[in-house]
């Protein structure tokens, strides 16, 4: 089983923490970087090969991870000379990847079973599988429904339920066949193209722990949670 970790972003929303460190290496708790937790989880799930797509401050990630042997992994690297989006880095390594593989962001804190995502994806025949999580979004305003200049409905501060992408995907090589290596490719573009072609992605619904370390508030919450969640996140790792 092969995993690709996307670790090339600048982490702009997480500044000032990412001024000197790449986002996947910001510390969680007192002894682990986010990326270390992810690599430990992948190894415990049975993954043996991992490719890191690096860019901003990538030399620091190389120095920290090395060849991955300390976690029982074989780690190699692909470098982005310019931003390529979420899926663009995969095009430059497509010949080195198996038919089906896992792709994930390098800043995700979760107890998701990565191996099961890949197994379910491989068995589904879908070009893409998206791990999804339930989110409730609260609207802080009274919401009006209008028709022809008249108010015909009103809801006071409603809540709306969505399923959102967790930043973890099962991908099959044919899903990427039409795209040109070296050009940017976003997750949004890939999904919309697949839908337009009638090649519907599969959803892998998850209801455990998930936190995307995107903003300082998220990072503070991750550190606050980690003491009680260490055993859950690092079980078997």
Please provide a written account of the structure.
- The structure is a single chain.
- With 237 residues, this protein is α/β, with parallel strands linked by helices.
- It has a single domain, classed as Spore Coat Polysaccharide Biosynthesis Protein SpsA, Chain A.
- The chain has helices spanning 34-44, 58-65, 88-91, 114-124, 187-196, 216-233; strands at 2-7, 27-28, 32-33, 49-54, 74-79, 100-105, 108-110, 128-138, 142-147, 150-156, 159-172, 202-206, 210-212.
- The strands form 4 sheets. A 7-stranded mixed sheet has the order 5-4-1-6-11-8-12, with helices on one face.
- Strand 2 (27-28) and strand 3 form a beta hairpin.
- It starts with a strand and ends with a helix.
Provide a short characterization of the protein structure.
This protein is of the alpha/beta class.
